[in-house]
Structures are given as structure tokens and as C-alpha cells.
Specification:
By secondary structure, the chain is an alpha/beta fold. The chain is 19% helix and 28% strand. Helix 5 packs across helix 6.
């Protein structure tokens, strides 16, 4: 499978730069994965595609204000650090620009010394491991000094940083938002629940894989970075019961999908579990953990377009994307949604 097979033409003006005023007012393309037929709806219509007894699975990770601009203590050079993964305690795996300036022992200072990061390990691809030094509560300091790590294709300033969080964000630890969930409002979730649909939560902290393009021509050779996930026993029981009752499991987002598939491949059912996953889903990989997926429109040649192509067939996905371009759907993080049923 070649990387070029997952390419499509996208005019730059269709990349959404700011969120819509109302979260659930985005458009919704509904794709039948078996027939490839399409419907054009609005996101609030999603409730009409969910049936009593179905289970909707959302990722409750919360985005860190993880982008920090500081100074290298020795030279005063401006250094950008993106905190990616909390390894343990005050140890953070981070993406650094310019990485060539940071070596083991170097200190980067932020907010006139309010926070200092000492480099303890040098890794490939601009990754550095830091030990944080500070007085007080780390996440309060980060809230004061950091900004939301918006993807590089978003050039507009985000006026309200809560718009890069889902309304149900709870478990802090992501370097990017699980963007399929950005469309939901508390009111819409309440209506879905009132209809008799189960709403459950898991956690996957989104990490480096979100920011890294696929660099190999043979996509099967691509290696995903690992990300932490967690699923409770209570949620596992609801998912198993959903299956037993012949109802559907609908994942909200590729992160929820990767978590569910990791656990299902491991046990052949859903169980309480946590750990790190580097699962890579692409065409030819049979996804057995879910029956439907709510997702956004993804970047050309990305691991995410490969994942949705594994669920709905690459030809169906690329046809849907080309029609979305013609119909002027909004793309990527702040863009419109797709429901693969």
C-alpha cells in the first residue's frame, strides 16, 4: 500500500481556522460503509441515526495548555517546547524547536524562572525528555504560562481556549483535542441519553502521532508513537452487554476507536484495561470493536484517513472526501463531521 493512494486535493480555504459559534451547528456527512451512499445533514441530526440500546463511546481526555515559549538559560535563545507525554512525576517527553539547540543538561526557563525544564535525554525527531522544576502546583503554572497546542494548519488565534476542549473533557494529559467530540453540546448529549442511548467514556491521551506525518512510501512500515489509554470495568460491561443485545457500538473519534480496538484485539472482548497503545489501523486490518464511527475530515496521507479507510473502504472514503470538497465542507480540527454507519 503506497502513501500516494491516500492523497486527495484540498483547497486551503476549506481548512477551518476557527470553530463555529455553536458547536453542534456543523454539517454532518453520513456515509454508508457497505454501499458508499452519502447523505448531507447537520450535526444535530446525529440523534436520528442512533437507536435505543446503542452505546456511544467518547474520549474524556483533556488538552494541556502544552505549548511553551522560553529561553535557553545559557544563551537566551528562544525555544519552543510542546509537552507530549508525562512519563512519570515531573518527567515529560516533549517536542522541541529548534531541537538542535537542546542537549542533555541544558535548561529552558519560562516565565522568568517560574518553570524550568532540564534536558535529561535526547531522542530522534526533535524529541527531548525534560525534568520540570518549579514551586507550587505544576498544572496551575502550566495554565498560566502555556497556550493550547493548535495544529500547524490553524493560523488564526483561538479566542476561547475552551473551544479546543470537548464539553466533557475531564482527564488532563493530551497534546491535542479528540476533535470529533468538539461537535457535542451538553444539550445534545442529554437528548441522546434521553432517547435511550448509552453514553460511556474512555481515556486516550493524544500524543506525538497527531503531529507527525507519514514519511514512508509503504504505509505498512509506518510506526505509531505510543499513547496512554484507560477503560473502566463498568464501561467494559456496558460494551459487552451492548454486543450481546445485538445493538451497536458507535465510537466518537479515531482515538476512541484505537482504544477499543486495542483492548478487543487483546482479549477478544471488552475488559477493564490501561496501558500504552501504538496500534496502527489501515486497510486490510479488520476493525471488530465498533459498528460505527463519528469523525472529522482528516489530512491527506495521514494515519487517520488510513484508519477510516479500513472501516469504510478506501474508495468510499476518497469519493466522500472529493464530494465534501465540491460541497465546500469545512475540514480538519474545527471542521465538519462524518458519520460512518
Amino acid at each position: 500500500m503506497k502513501l500516494e493512494e491516500f492523497d486527495y486535493f484540498l483547497p486551503e480555504e476549506l481548512i477551518a481556522q476557527v470553530p463555529l459559534k455553536k458547536r453542534d451547528s456543523s454539517r454532518l456527512m453520513v456515509l454508508d460503509k457497505k454501499t458508499g451512499t452519502l447523505e448531507h445533514k447537520h450535526f444535530t441530526d446525529i440523534i436520528n441515526y442512533l437507536n435505543v440500546g446503542d452505546t456511544l463511546v467518547l474520549n474524556d481526555t483533556k488538552v494541556l495548555p502544552a505549548r511553551l515559549i522560553g529561553e535557553k538559560q545559557k544563551t537566551g535563545a528562544i525555544i519552543e517546547v510542546l509537552l507530549l507525554k508525562n512519563k512519570e512525576g515531573d518527567i515529560w517527553e516533549s517536542l522541541v524547536k529548534p531541537a538542535r539547540r537542546i542537549h542533555v543538561g541544558d535548561i529552558v526557563s519560562f516565565g522568568n524562572g517560574l518553570l524550568k525544564l532540564v534536558c535529561t535525554e535526547v531522542k530522534d525527531d526533535g524529541i527531548r525528555v525534560f525534568k520540570a522544576s518549579y514551586d507550587g502546583i505544576f498544572y496551575e503554572i502550566l495554565d498560566q504560562l502555556g497556550t493550547m497546542p493548535l495544529p500547524p494548519y490553524i493560523h488564526e488565534k483561538l479566542e476561547d481556549k475552551d473551544r479546543y476542549q470537548t464539553v466533557y473533557a475531564k482527564e488532563i494529559g493530551s497534546a491535542a483535542a479528540p476533535t470529533a467530540g468538539l461537535h457535542f453540546t451538553e444539550e445534545l448529549l442529554s437528548k441522546i441519553k434521553d432517547k435511550g442511548i448509552n453514553i460511556v467514556y474512555l481515556t486516550l491521551h493524544v500524543g506525538l502521532g497527531t503531529f507527525r506525518p507519514v514519511k514512508v512510501e509503504d504505509v505498512t512500515k509506518h510506526k505509531m508513537h505510543s499513547e496512554f489509554y484507560s477503560l473502566s470495568g463498568e464501561v467494559a460491561d456496558i460494551l459487552n452487554k451492548t454486543r450481546k443485545n445485538g445493538k451497536r457500538i458507535i465510537a466518537v473519534g479515531t482515538t476512541s476507536t484505537r482504544t477499543l480496538e486495542t483492548i478487543y484485539q487483546k482479549f477478544g472482548e471488552f475488559r477493564e484495561d490501561h496501558g500504552f497503545t501504538d496500534i496502527f489501523i489501515y486497510p486490510g486490518k479488520d476493525v471488530k470493536s465498533i459498528d460505527g464511527l463519528i469523525t472529522n475530515f482528516h489530512l491527506p496521507k495521514s494515519t487517520l484517513i488510513m484508519l477510516v479507510s479500513a472501516i469504510a473502504c478506501k474508495d468510499n472514503i476518497l469519493n466522500a472526501y472529493n464530494i465534501a470538497v465540491k460541497e465546500k465542507y469545512r475540514f480538519f480540527s474545527f471542521g465538519d463531521a462524518m458519520f460512518i454507519k
